[in-house]
């Protein structure tokens, strides 16, 4: 029997009251009058009202979709977002500001923050189809695109999303190797002097990071990662604050603010444009988290409605990250001017105190351990769902085995997860070793994902969700907004690809 499809009267009549043809003068069944006289009818009626309410809105153990009760809050969402946003990108912002200058640099940072906030608001309303409170849940970005825009655009969105996530993980491997190498170089410079030939490779350290990520990939899904995100967010605040403090210290010691309105000078206009376009890509990479927004939103408890909680969390996280971004970018450029390094903490604009540089780079590595998982768990989840759907009777795909290692609590292992996730980590690590170009890789990734994933698809889904009519004022404003972001993405992609090709050929 479908309780949800029945109203209260039909529920009572079908379940409580036998069919009698005779009624009293008030139209009440004799049996109902008798039951009421001993007080049982009210209790039975209340029980079925509660049953009907549980059917509609879930229970204390399960949500309305039958899954385990979600427990995420606005603050756990903020931790996830900050872990996803503040990462490798923040360290390149001083260099990006140096290429654009004192006017364009901060303005582009603020523009990207505004764009990310708008796109997150649009996308958070698409978590539940049509109705933000009772509509069907869309568990992932691709689920939402499929429901609102159809299968054809789902393939395009999925390809771009997974490419962006895969690229972000590759960039994190590159950054980790750079940071671990920087720790060794910092200690060497402290002992031997700043002109000492302290040269170290980073391939081995990338490989070590890959091994760590294979172990971390035993975490089943994003719902079990709140503690990882909290630790990673604390680490991101730590190294961002150290970079900011060292920048302020250097500005004070210099007694002047370095840099210019037009940024770093070049020998010709073409070189200047290439660097400026690459800087646009770097900044674009530093902000958007919309590619995993719905996955984060799917961890939130309800009530209140998930879209309201997600909008609150997005605003808090973006305000925090924008403050840190502006401070790190501006004080980094003010400290070093035209000599601003591509990576603020590993490019050795700062040498002392060496132990603080070491600590900051260690914080970066710890943050990237969690950041890698935040991005890769979306791909892991998609692979798990595909395997279960494709091979529902396979023990290799679906069975869980209990494993107990010395000094560690028992945990469950799935052979399909183990093989797929290990292969995934190995592939990102190998690609990072092959193309270890920090700024250029960030620029390409940012340009590829910025417009289609953070702007185009959220805008198109919002049109369907809110039934926005073509050529209405809201439709025109959002179309212009999307077109401007498209131009920025194209410029960033061209500049960053040119940078990678130049580095590889040089």
UniProtKB/TrEMBL annotation:
Entry superkingdom: Eukaryota
Pfam families, per database record: Aa_trans (PF01490)
InterPro entries for this protein: AA_transpt_TM (IPR013057)
Keywords of this entry: Amino-acid transport, Auxin signaling pathway, Cell membrane, Membrane, Symport, Transmembrane, Transmembrane helix, Transport
A GO CC term assigned to this protein in UniProt: plasma membrane
Domain Amino acid transporter transmembrane: 70-501
Any one GO MF annotation of this record: symporter activity
Transmembrane regions listed in the UniProt entry: 77-96, 102-123, 162-183, 203-219, 226-248, 273-294, 315-334, 354-375, 418-438, 444-464, 476-497
GO biological process assignments: amino acid transport; auxin-activated signaling pathway
UniProt-annotated location(s): Cell membrane; Endomembrane system
Topological type in the membrane: Multi-pass membrane protein
Coiled coil: none
Family: Belongs to the amino acid/polyamine transporter 2 family. Amino acid/auxin permease (AAAP) (TC 2.A.18.1) subfamily.
Physiological role: Carrier protein involved in proton-driven auxin influx. Mediates the formation of auxin gradient from developing leaves (site of auxin biosynthesis) to tips by contributing to the loading of auxin in vascular tissues and facilitating acropetal (base to tip) auxin transport within inner tissues of the root apex, and basipetal (tip to base) auxin transport within outer tissues of the root apex. May be involved in lateral roots and nodules formation.
Protein name as catalogued: Probable amino acid permease 7 isoform X1
Organism per entry: Abrus precatorius (Indian licorice)
């Amino acid at each position: 029997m479908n309780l949800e499809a029945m109203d209260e009267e039909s529920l009572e009549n079908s379940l409580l009251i036998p069919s009698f043809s005779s009624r009293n003068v008030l139209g009440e069944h004799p049996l109902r009058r008798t039951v009421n006289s001993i007080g049982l009818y009210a209790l039975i009626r209340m029980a079925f009202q509660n049953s009907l309410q549980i059917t509609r809105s879930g229970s204390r153990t399960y949500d309305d979709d039958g899954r385990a009760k979600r427990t995420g809050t606005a603050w756990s969402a903020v931790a996830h977002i900050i872990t996803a946003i503040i990462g490798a990108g923040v360290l390149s912002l001083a260099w990006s500001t140096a290429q654009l200058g004192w006017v364009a640099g901060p303005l582009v940072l603020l523009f990207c923050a505004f764009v990310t906030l708008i796109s997150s608001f649009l996308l958070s309303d698409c978590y539940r189809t049509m109705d933000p409170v009772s509509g069907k849940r869309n568990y992932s970005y691709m689920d939402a695109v499929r429901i609102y825009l159809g299968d054809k655009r789902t393939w395009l969105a999925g390809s771009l999303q997974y490419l962006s996530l895969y690229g972000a993980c590759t960039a994190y491997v590159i950054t980790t190797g750079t940071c671990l190498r920087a720790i060794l170089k910092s200690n060497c410079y402290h002992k031997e002097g700043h002109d000492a030939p302290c040269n170290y490779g980073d391939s081995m350290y990338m490989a070590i990071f890959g091994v760590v990520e294979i172990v971390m990939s035993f975490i089943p899904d994003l719902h079990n990662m709140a503690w990882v995100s909290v630790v990673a967010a604390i680490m991101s605040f730590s190294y961002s604050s150290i970079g900011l403090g060292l920048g302020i210290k250097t500005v004070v010691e210099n007694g002047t603010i370095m840099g210019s309105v037009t940024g770093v000078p070049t020998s010709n206009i073409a070189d200047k444009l290439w660097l400026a376009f690459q800087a646009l890509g770097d900044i674009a990479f530093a902000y958007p988290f919309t590619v995993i927004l719905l996955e984060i939103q799917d961890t939130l408890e309800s009530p209140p409605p998930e879209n309201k909680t997600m909008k609150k969390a997005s605003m808090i996280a973006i305000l925090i990250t924008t403050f840190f971004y502006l401070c790190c970018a501006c004080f980094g450029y003010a400290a070093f001017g035209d000599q601003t390094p591509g990576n603020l903490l590993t490019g050795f604009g700062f040498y002392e105190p060496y132990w603080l540089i070491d600590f900051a780079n260690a914080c970066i590595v710890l943050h990237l351990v969690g950041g890698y998982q935040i991005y890769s768990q979306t791909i892991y989840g998609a692979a798990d769902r595909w395997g279960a759907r494709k091979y529902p009777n396979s023990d290799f795909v679906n069975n869980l085995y209990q494993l107990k290692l010395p000094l560690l609590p028992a945990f469950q292992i799935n052979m399909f997860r183990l093989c797929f996730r290990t292969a995934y980590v190995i592939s990102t690590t190998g690609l990072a070793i092959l193309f270890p170009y920090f700024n250029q890789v960030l620029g390409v990734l940012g340009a590829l994902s910025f417009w289609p994933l953070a702007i185009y698809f959220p805008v198109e889904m919002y049109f369907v969700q809110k039934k926005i009519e073509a050529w209405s004022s809201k439709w025109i404003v959002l179309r212009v907004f999307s077109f401007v972001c498209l131009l920025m993405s194209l410029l960033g992609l061209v500049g960053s690809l040119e940078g990678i090709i130049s580095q590889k050929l040089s």
